[in-house]
Fold:
Amino acid sequence: MPGADEAAIAVAEERLGRRLPPSYRGFLAASDGWHVDQTAAIHRLGGASDIDWFRDPYGMTSMDEPDPGADPSEQEVLLAGMWRRALRLETDSDMSHALLDPGDSDEDGEWALYVYKGWSGEVPDRYPSFRAYMEAMYRGFHADRAAQPDFVNATTRTRDAHVDEARLLALRGRYEEALPLLEEAFAFGRPRSAVLLNQLRQLLAPSRSQGYGHLVADPLYLPEILPLEAMEQANGRGWSGGDEQWLRMMVARGTAPEVAEAVLGAVRDGTHQYAPPGPWGRAVADAREEARWGATDAAWHVLREAPPLWEPPGPLMVVPLGLLADPVLGPLFTPERGRETLATPRAGETGPAPEPVPDLDPPGLAWLVEPFRYGQPLEGYRCVWVEGAGPADLPALIGEEGAELSAPVDLARSFRRAPQPHEREGVELWEDRAVVAVGRTAEGWAFAFDGPSHRHLHDRFLSPAAAASSSGRAVVVWCDPRRPSPDDPAVFHVSVAERGEELYAFTMRGTEIRRSGAIPEALDPARLFRPKSTELDNELRVLEALHTELGLSLPRFALTQGRLCTFTTRSWTRAPRAGEGFAYVSFVRHRS
Structure:
């Protein structure tokens, strides 16, 4: 439709008592009104003679005014006042309004435009200017027609070329340049833009789910995509209708039901493994072997060097997404490491390597006194270190009869402990069997860690150090923190054995010290536990001494955020001797 001349626009401004914002004046000069040819809430924008003040005929101001005494944001205040001062632009709509607000303006004199869809009950959509609104409408016009094969013009050709360019940039590690190209193409609904953009976003926020549509059933991409979908469901972030609804959705996208069910089961029980072919697959296997025993930093060093070996299964993939669903390797992907992977050239492409992100595991044991998870301290722990043995040897050394290593367990949710004695047939009530996470320290010791431990160290404690030391030294540490009762002080125990014999041990209970054997001066409890120091300072001092004197450490990341194998130990408590009393109390809560 022809534009309005300057005189007609001036007449409208005189009638309204305001000069119109620049982009809207430019619109009227180019087209005096507009028929919106798409499925939108606004069907027609009026010309210069049609527009008028809205004046809030439906009383929306009172609905959006902040409550007395509230502390509203600037945007909430603007919205509440918008209804009475806005300029109405539409002349035909689906119970909707296009409102220009002179009270919400910028330094260029542009007024914000609000689109209110009366049937939705939602807060109006805000655009910073009329131009921004029309640009969004232009993008929407193309997105609505993107699936039509004959819908081709200069705009679609340009955006499709940007998708091709972004794909190459992403593979060359220049993801920051690729992102805006893909975001723009996605806004225009261009094919391939969404799936490529979502891959970059997934690596930038590894815990955030993205959508990949029918790629979940494509034989090329299924090994990378389907486990990711299954991981969301297994972690409780999937479909609210449970596994049945999830399976129906996978089948609806073309996945064979037996395949989807098998992948979900393997992801849920921790047995799924990302196993791509070729040199990349061998690097993944090497990294998993490091990470499954707790050496997550070493595992990351392997993965950081391997992306050039990765070969995309097809043209719609620019990152190895399957790593994220691997139960052992997936937890290694922090946002910082995700960015490092994105910035590393892949699939034979070349480019500068990014600056390596710092390692995550601190040396030694001092981190045990820091917040363990969710900002909370570690409420007790116990650990066995064994020199000269591998983690897989520990069940035979200190495990209960028939003990075997489990599949990797998600330690981030809760530390697994053995069922209570009364819950297991053949277990005596006095027994204290622990479910421990196993791994290998940076110094080569195998370890078995239980924490937080809710069992208390008492006089019937039987150190597993001697049983664990058949192949070399073994060290046992048990920290049992202070309880609310002053008669139940904090306890800290250390015992060291070699070749089946205990060399020395000490137990610090409050201010009382029990010792045996020739304790090295560096570990002398009288030197480490000082009466005027806090419990935390004393604990830190002995942990630092154990690291310095014996070379003990524990991998923080694996124990707080990763997955490790577990097994159940023999009892840490000896049987009652003749004449010793023993009582076991369990509490069962019944709902009334």
In short: The chain has 20 helices and 18 strands. The CA atoms of residues 151 and 592 lie 66 Å apart.
